[in-house]
Amino acid sequence: MSKKKKIDSVNVKGFSKPANIIFTILMALVALTCVFPFIFVIIISFTSEQSITMNGYRLIPSEWSLDGYRYLIEMKGQILQALFISVFVTVVGTIVNVVFTSTYAYAISRNSFPYRRFFTMLALASMLFSAGMVPSYIVMTNMLGLKDSIWALILPMALSPFNIIVMRTFYRRSVPDAIIEAAKIDGASELRTFLQIVLPLSVPGIATISLFAALAYWNDWFNALLYIQSDNLVPLQYLLMKIQGSIDFMMQNTALGAQVTGGVNIPKEATRMAMVVISTVPIAATYPFFQKYFVGGLTIGGVKE
């Protein structure tokens, strides 16, 4: 009887119940430290500027306000246009990046590809060394003629060396050579083998690099700074930076700020936090859809029972 109780007190992974409770509490605290900053930013975005000036940042502000969001709503036309550009660039760019990355990684993961070592070293070299900003700018503007074009926001990040290495490792561990050889014996071409056999087995890896690519495209503002001049092609991140720069400039020049705003104080801090919320919520809302496959992609190579 005592032996049975001893077995019941230990779970499958070998931890006792008290240890499980302690680890659960610790993980909950770690998760809270990750989520709390964003919750705090949301609270500040709903705080009045006067309360922030007098009391600083507080978890429970003395006065709630929507002034930060009202200030941004006044520019809703520009923000909605910039949001559309960001969504379009993120979706199309992620698709382009995943297609190029997955096919490149699949080629260098196969032992039958004679130039796999050369292209692997090429990907590693491009990850370690860069030609610099000036050559990239010349290529994009003079050679490709993509200045002030939507493709100038997509093509510079269309191929990710880090994602290539991730997918190469995923293919080698998750797609057995025997399956591919069986498909070739049955008469399947390389393209058909890749589309009908390899890709269904690689959904966790594809989801992982898709999340990485989507985050990179969504947060990118530097390419817009370099290549975009038209207001209707500005992405959301760059527009919010321009708004923040305009607010800082007007606050430093009190007379100009009063003239532009009609004497109304600009909610600087609340607007700044509201911009963080607006730029973070859309991409954060997509994460739960990738989480299942993302965890599978990170734990690839684990021992199966």
Structural notes for this entry:
By secondary structure, this protein is mostly helical. It has 15 helices and no strands. Helix 4 crosses helix 15 (268-298) and helix 5 (76-109) packs antiparallel against helix 11. The radius of gyration is 26 Å and the shape is globular. This is Carbohydrate ABC transporter permease. Residues 83-287 form the ABC transmembrane type-1 domain. It is found in: Cell membrane.
The major sheet is characterized as: none
Task: Tally the helices.
Answer: 15
**The CATH H-level homologous superfamily:** MetI-like
Terminal-residue CA separation:
29 Å
CATH top level class name: Mainly Alpha
**According to CATH, what is the topology?**
MetI-like fold
Series of H and E elements: HHHHHHHHHHHHHHH
Tell me, rounded to a whole number, the average pLDDT. Answer: 80
Low-confidence stretches: 1-12, 257-263, 301-305
Count structural domains.
Answer: 1
Total number of beta strands: 0
Shape summary: globular
CATH-level-2 architecture = Orthogonal Bundle
What percent of the residues sit in helical stretches (DSSP H or I)?
Answer: over 70%
Instruction: Give me the secondary-structure category.
Output: mainly alpha
Rg (C-alpha, Å): 26 Å
Roughly what fraction of the amino acids lie in strands? Answer: under 5%
